Amino acid sequence: MKVAYYLDILKPHMPSLDLVARKLMEIEGMKNVRIKVDELDQKTASLHISVEGNDISLETVTEVLSSMNCALHSVDEVIYEHKE
Amino acid sequence: MKVAYYLDILKPHMPSLDLVARKLMEIEGMKNVRIKVDELDQKTASLHISVEGNDISLETVTEVLSSMNCALHSVDEVIYEHKE
Amino acid sequence: MKVAYYLDILKPHMPSLDLVARKLMEIEGMKNVRIKVDELDQKTASLHISVEGNDISLETVTEVLSSMNCALHSVDEVIYEHKE
Amino acid sequence: MKVAYYLDILKPHMPSLDLVARKLMEIEGMKNVRIKVDELDQKTASLHISVEGNDISLETVTEVLSSMNCALHSVDEVIYEHKE
Amino acid sequence: MKVAYYLDILKPHMPSLDLVARKLMEIEGMKNVRIKVDELDQKTASLHISVEGNDISLETVTEVLSSMNCALHSVDEVIYEHKE
Amino acid sequence: MKVAYYLDILKPHMPSLDLVARKLMEIEGMKNVRIKVDELDQKTASLHISVEGNDISLETVTEVLSSMNCALHSVDEVIYEHKE
Amino acid sequence: MKVAYYLDILKPHMPSLDLVARKLMEIEGMKNVRIKVDELDQKTASLHISVEGNDISLETVTEVLSSMNCALHSVDEVIYEHKE
User: Fold this and answer.
1) What is the ipTM of this complex?
2) CB A80 to CB B21 under 8 A?
3) Interval A56-61 mean pLDDT
4) Along the 84 residues of chain G, how does pLDDT read in single tens digits?
5) Do residues G12 and G69 make contact, with C-beta atoms less than 8 angstroms apart?
6) Where are the domains of chain B?
7) Nearest residue in A to B31, CA atom
């Protein structure tokens, strides 16, 4: 099953955007990760993250994000699709 | 027959968006489910849900939504298509 | 000949959107039906209906709509195309 | 040669949109006809008509429109294309 | 070499749009001609003309337009492309 | 390597747009040239020029433009792409 | 792994846009580089740079930019994709 999540995330200045993306790519089944900076504050960055993969779960995604000190602010969209 | 519904739904904070989507995917013939958060209130979330599948029925979809404590607010669009 | 009509319709609350769509799909040659809710009033709903099929006629479409208590408000667009 | 015309037309309430479109489709070489209602007045309707076909001529199109009591208000666009 | 020109033209009421387009189509190498009416004044019409062809020249295009009593107001865009 | 430049150019009334485009097309490797008129002043025209080709260089492009009495006002965008 | 970065950069007037782009193209795995001028000040230019390639790293990209006297102002977007 193809799964995609659109998430709003609060990230401290470290780790870097690049490192967060690379860690998310290591999740089993992950196909692509896209991180866009929405707003930069003094100590944090608001990010729009979209992840897409085969049978990925929101738990695994948020666990990886937590381990990178990123807080899940909200889940904006969820897409599921049966592969033909 | 390909059928698609665009629905407005009121969901309490639990169950999660993810769980609602997964339950809808279990419906016979369902091909994809897309849930977008429209507005978040203290106790509820307004959702735009689009479901698409082969010979799915609105009754089954709303039954599954009810069983997840989601109230159908309105049906915005209905699409039917004969497969070639 | 491929024929498509874009219609504005006034529908009482019953029958349901879904039932109107299913009835229109039963018309000989009909390929797809799309119904979008434009405005909801206390007793009626204004609908944009698009129907597309092979050699369907406006009479048959409006007859089916009448039999469902739907009033044809206006014909917004008519498209005819000779199949290659 | 592929030819397309975009025309503004003034039509009395009768004949119907549907009949005008069907008559235009009978022109030799006509491939598709699209009629969109722009404005409805008490006695007339302003229409955007686009016709496309092989070696159709503006004279034939306007003759058919005249025979249906439709007045050509203006020619908005003319497209010619040599078939490969 | 594929060449396209986008021209602004001032045309008296006669000859007709249709005739101007047909004359331009007779130019050696011309592939398509598109004429859009921008503004209609009492005695003239402002037109956007786009012509596209193989090795057509601006001189030939403007000569044909002059012979039809059309004045070249401005050249808005010029596109050249080597055919693969 | 595919290279594209988007340039802002100031051109005196002569030479013509058409001649400038033809000269740019003579550059080795040039694939297409697109010149759009941005503003017409009494003595000059501001142009948006986009050129695309294989291994073309900005020097050659600006040299050709200089030889046509066109002044390079600014380089707006540069695109490089390795051919697959 | 396909990687793309969207960067905001501050560049002194020299080296030229063209040279910066060519240097970035020399990075191992780089597929395309696109530089757009956002704002021109007296001594500096604000640039939007997008780079895309196979297994390119942000470190290498910023090193090359530093060696060209360009300062990385911000990373706006990061995209990773597993090749099929």
Assistant:
1) 0.86
2) yes
3) 95
4) 999 999 999 999 899 999 999 999 999 999 999 999 999 888 999 999 999 999 999 999 999 999 999 999 999 999 999 986
5) yes
6) 2-81
7) A82
Contact yes or no for D81 and E32 at CB 8 A: yes
Going by C-alpha positions, the residue among B77, B84, B70 that lies closest to residue B4 is B77
Task: Fill in the amino acid letter for D44.
Answer: T
Q: Which of C4, C37, C5, C3 is nearest to C20 (CA)?
A: C37
The closest CB to that of G79, out of A30, A34, A40, belongs to A34
Q: Euclidean distance between the first and final Cα of chain G, in Å?
A: 9
Taking residue A13's Cβ as centre, other Cβ atoms within 10 Å add up to 12
Residue with tokens 């294309």: D81
SS percent in chain A: helix, strand, coil, step 5: 25, 50, 25
Q: Which of D79, A49, B47 is nearest to E31 (CA)?
A: D79
Region class of E55: left (phi > 0), else alpha (psi between -120 and 50), else beta:
left
Task: Please name the amino acid found at residue C31.
Answer: K
The DSSP bridge partners found for residue E63 are none
Flag if C18 and B81 touch (Cβ within 8 Å): no
Residue whose tokens read 């479409």: C61
Name the residue among B10, B16, B23, B17 with its Cα closest to residue B70.
B10
pLDDT digit string (tens) for A68-83?
999 999 999 999 999 8
Q: Which of D58, D78, D82 sits opposite E35 (nearest CB)?
A: D78
pLDDT value of position E84? 66
Residue A25, helix vs strand vs coil: helix
Distance CA G49, CA G76 (A): 10
* Tokens representing residue C4 in the block: 């498509």
Phi, psi for residue B4 in degrees, rounded to 5: -135, 140
Can you tell me the distance from the alpha carbon of C30 to that of C52, in angstroms, rounded to the nearest whole number? 6
The CATH class of the A2-81 domain is alpha beta
CB distance G35 to F78 below 8 Å: yes
Is some CB atom of chain G closer than 8 A to the CB atom of F63?
Answer: no
Retrieve residue A51's tokens.
Answer: 């992840």
**E and A: touch, per 3+ CB pairs < 8 A?**
no
Of C1, C74, C82, the CB nearest to D37: C74
Distance separating alpha carbons of residues B78 and C37, to the nearest angstrom = 9
Contacts of D69 (CB under 8 A, 6+ apart): D11, D12, D14, D15
Is the CB of residue B1 less than 8 Å away from at least one CB of chain C?
A: yes
